[in-house]
Amino acid sequence: MNNGEPPITRPDANPLDPGLLRDVVTGQVRLTPEQSLQIYREMPIQDLGRWADARCRAIHGDQLRTYVIDRNINYTNVCTAKCTFCAFRRNGDEDDAYTLEVEHILHKIQELVDIGGTQILMQGGMNPDLPLSWYENLLNSIRDRFPDVHVHAFSPPEFIEFIDFFDPPGDTLADQLRYVMTRLKAAGLHTVPGGGGEIFADAVRRKIGLGKCTAEAWLTTMYVAHELGMNTSATMMFGHIEGVADRIHHMELVRQWQDRSLADFGDEGGRYKAFISWPFQPDNTPLGRCQEWGDHPSDQLDAPFPGDVVAKLDGTGNHLDHPRFGRRIRLSGSSDYLRTQALSRLHLDNIHSIGASWVTMGPHIGQVALTWGANDMGSVMMEENVVSAAGTTYCLSEPLLCHLIRQAGFVPAQRNNAYGILKAHEDENSPDLRIKDWSTLRAQKLHKQNDSCQEQDAVTVTIGGQQAD
């Protein structure tokens, strides 16, 4: 931003021109969606990584890269939505449906505090049996017991369902959201996570997010949160039926609505503090049963992927434009993940932080991501149930997370939700530098409904030339 105004665009400039890219790195120029699409398709992947790293260093400097100690508490798996990418949701009458008791949640938070944690990320299914008073009681109980713990909770789809479930007063969606958010903020809600973003393009969203809110409703929820002074994050799940243009359209909407919040609310309002993207995890999901593009004999590999045929940079793609749209998926591997993350750092000039998704991609790709535009390694993952229900989810201890950051060439630093530095680990008391025998630590895989990392099915991670197995 220049004096509070968004950077200028140069739509006629070649986005592969180093001169233009240097101005993008310094924040003087922003990329257009068309330029970002050309960069994704034509720029060599190593060059894209270098430009994204340069932009990251221009914002965050050359030294510190951050992480947070928090706990992901999924308070219920009962959900009215039937997203095809989800293996976590349950109907209320299923045997393994659950809603955690308040005391159980408080016990989980105590375990977090005991290891130096500062924040909870609390999201769940959209459970029609829970009244607004249940949420207020939960938040009040957390605040009374743990006044110093930051509560980052309830994603936009949950808020939209709150409107349906609670029927709050208000003439518009924004009015109704404002009513519910004001009550929950008064009870102890601090910030709003960006879950449920998936892909904003309507053609994609209608196929994969059955019963989930529209992009407009998602963005309006965050806009109201910003109006009330609450910071938020934005997310994107890619590598399924969408086209590349859909990813860029998604980033562009986040950037546009961030511009709007900054212009309307200034320093007194909230804003998107971070953008985190990750590839779809197909195991145990209905969407994962779709065939990958090219696996069926009738797929013509010299023809474009169905999602790319349908996708438009303005989000107006029509699902009828390809007969196999929604019936074929294109999974993302490490290179596509890094390319997409690097592009997000260049395109999202008004977003402070880009998070690495080691939770889905594994520790070493998460480490590499720190030189591909990411400045933050996310959380020491005590618990995760949603993504782990759909495939591999890794778990790293604080020493391992710090070690990965340091081995990437940076100083690890523990942060808070606002990305303020709580502790920079620059001396021998760093969690990783106190470890003498790395064979006692390992990266582990989380499993659905586990309260902590499990030793079985652990993956081997090479640490500084040694193996922690």
How is this structure best summarized?
The chain has 469 residues and is of the alpha/beta class.
Number of structural domains: 1
Distance between the termini: 46 Å
Helix/strand/pairing class, anyone? alpha/beta
| Strand residue content | 15-25%
CATH topology: TIM Barrel
Number of strands: 19
- Could you name the ranges where pLDDT drops below 50 across 5 or more consecutive residues? 384-391, 446-469
In CATH, the homologous superfamily goes by the name: Aldolase class I
CATH class call: Alpha Beta
Describe this structure in words.
Helix 7 crosses helix 9 (about 215-225). The protein has 15 helices and 19 strands. The chain has a single domain (about 45-425), classed as Alpha-Beta Barrel (TIM Barrel), CATH 3.20.20.70. It has helices spanning about 20-25, 35-40, 45-60, 100-115, 130-145, 155-165, 175-185, 200-210, 215-225, 245-265, 305-310, 335-345, 360, 365-370, 400-405; strands spanning about 10, 30, 65-75, 80-85, 120-125, 150-155, 210, 230-240, 270-280, 290, 330, 355, 375-380, 395, 410-415, 420-425, 445, 460-465, 465-469. The protein is globular. With about 475 residues, the chain is of the alpha/beta class. Strands 3, 5, 6, 13, 15 and 16 form a six-stranded mixed sheet that branches.
